[in-house]
Each structure stands twice: as C-alpha cells, then as structure tokens.
Amino acid sequence: xxxxxxxxxxxxxxxxxxxxxxxxxxxxxxxxxxLLDRPLNIPPGKSEYEIADYFRARGAENAMGFANFLxxxxxxxxxxxxxxxxxxxxxxxxxxxxxxxxxxQGTLTSIFEFQTxxxxxxxxxxxxxxxxxxxxxxxxxxLMARRITGRHRLVVARNVHPEHREVLRTYTQxxxxxxxxxxxxxxxxxxxxxxxxxxxxxxxxxVLIQSPNFFGVLENVGQLAEIAHAKGALxxxxxxxAVSLGLxxxxxxxxxxxxxxxxxxxxxxxxxxxxxxxxxKEKFMRQLPGRLVGQTKDANGNxxxxxxxxxxxxxxxxxxxxxxxCTNQALIALMATVFMTVYGKAGLRELAVQNLSKAHYLGxxxxxxxxxxxxxxxxxxxxxxxxxxxKLEQRKIIGGLPLKRFYxxxxxxxxxxxxxxxxxxxxxxxxxxxxx
Length: 436
What we know:
It contains eleven helices and 14 strands.
C-alpha cells in the first residue's frame, strides 16, 4: 500500500467506471495459459529496516573490507567526505542539468569551475560541461575530428581500452567511417609507431591513442602528434585514469582530449554513472558537442554565468545536431569538481606521486610483461591469473584483470593497479600469491 496507494474504495470505483465486477475481469481477454493462478514464488514482504539490513549483509558478502588491485578503467580511490556533503544539498541534487539554466546560477558556477579546472589539467583551451562517460567521449571526439577534417578514416591504437573501442565501432559502423587498428609493441606495450605511421594517410581524420594506455604504459604523445599532423590528421588523446594528470605532462600536443573522470570521487557503482569530458583547442570550439558555460555580466553589471555556444539544434533540429548528447548529469560532474577543489594542484600531484610509488613498489616484486614506463597500472606475468585471483579472494583481496579476456595472446598476463588506498602488507601478499 505504500507504493500502490489505492484503497479498496478507490478500486471499487475504478471497476464501476469500467463496468466490471471484479479485478479478474480486467484480464478476461487473455488466454488461460497466459494467466498465473497462484501467488508469485517470492518471499513475503519486509519492513524498511529489514530491507536495509538485508542489503548491508549482501554488501558484506561482496567486497566490503576487501583490498582492491583491479583497475582497467575503473579505479578505487578515496572519496573525500566533503563530496557527498556538497552534492546532497538541495541546490544541486537534481536529476539532470536544468534546461532553464540561467535561473540556476549555482549550477552554472560549478560547471564553469569544472570546465576551467579541466582546461588546466589537459592543457586545452576549452572543455565542455562533461559527457556521459569516457567510452562515449572517445567516439564523440572521433566524430568531431571527421567534421573538422572532412575525412572518413580513423586509426586507433589497439592498446586503447577494448570496451571504448567497442563503443567507437558502434558509433561509426553506420556513419561510413573506416576504423583501422594499429597494434602495440610486444616489448614496450606502447602503440607500434611504425604501424601508426604506415596506416595514417591523407584520408585519415584522426589518430586515437590512450595514455596511460590500457596496459598502464605511457605513450609518446609528441611523436604521435607529429605523425598525425604530417598527414593533416588530428590527434585524439584519451585518458581513463584522471589522477595521472596530476603528475604527467598535459597532452598539449593533442587536438582533442577525451577522458573519464571516475577517479575524481565518482564511486565505481557497478560501472556508472560516470563523467566523461571533451576538451579541445579554441579553433575547434564550435565543433565541440554538449554545452559550454560562459562568464558574463547581468543587467546590474555583476558577474554572472550563462550557457553559451549550446547548439540549439541539439534540442530542436536534431538532424543538424553535432551529437545527441547535450551534457552529462551535472551532479556527477559536480563530484569531480569538489574533488579537484579539495585537492588543488599540490594535493593532486601528491596523490599522483603516491599512486606512482605504490605501483612501482609492487611492480618491482613481479615479472612485468612490458618494459614501457607506467603510472599506477601494469601487466604482470603469471602462470594462472584465475587461480591467483581465487587465492587472493580468500585473503580478502580483489586481484587484477586477466588480459586473456581482451587479448588472447596475453593469456599469461594479469593487469594490476595500485592506488593511494593500497597498503604495503596487501601488496606484499599479492606478490607472494603471484609468485606461487
């Protein structure tokens, strides 16, 4: 009755209006074999506090209290308590970015700060008001490159996140866009530069790379940008571990930056919702999908914010839209904004150094698959990744990702990740189990 608040009187009135005598008459038109003549085979209802206890118990059965060394695009970072304090305020806790945004100056202010900090992180001139996630930001960047260059061919590194590449193919398969992959170097784990160079031609709209790539290895962005630009193509730079931007050189040589901000205080939450971003150089600004918040003055000369360069076609004339995406939920982007504000430049750098140091502590104890420099994630060699993960699970540790799932040729390798939440004794235990 709490969720179906119809009284017996209201039910009788409904049946009388329909000219029916009983509830079963509502289904008289259905064949008997389609009707269920017994109660549903489910347990009886529970009170609200019993339901809360039930889910706490299920959570304890899952990963509560477990150490986590699983990365692969979704990372276990500490979430400052201030994040939930801010995002749960009534001014922000809405289901979507307001369409009449100018009346919500607080929301616009937070988005403006979000865009500003992302430009500082990426070295780009302008960033949009966030995308749904990194996997949708990458194909949006590719479509953007096609509009800018007028070309219909993409070269994407095979060490770009496999699931992001799947989404890219979903976007492009009916857009008459050819997608060709450049393999990775088996020794370093970086993209094979010679393959990129040979596959990039005068019909290529963009070269798409990720750094740190799916194996955690850092790419030579400047060199790859030169290869792309020599053929008149753009370089699209993707990141999935946003914390790396606190330490690594911003990808200023890229033309478009796509990324995933899950690491910035957005909980893993079974895979979403997350917040992706697109940032670019000023000359490409009008091809940027989504919304931009700009700074202006109100009628009294006071500082104010408004939506600017928001393509009306995205709301009205859909066939002329740059994208069907207007923006991500502003609430999710706000989490990342609060995170960046709490840490600041120095704090984010210190956080990145912690991630780097802990990953290299564990990496030094294991045989690594690739020789390339890495940030907080690396591929380690093991005889049986599944067996190792089962042993670790018994010790309340979530192990790494067996790379065989996406790369059959790497069946003896597992992808491990260390963050600031990793403890020395846990890393030592991972090393011991992997050695066995």
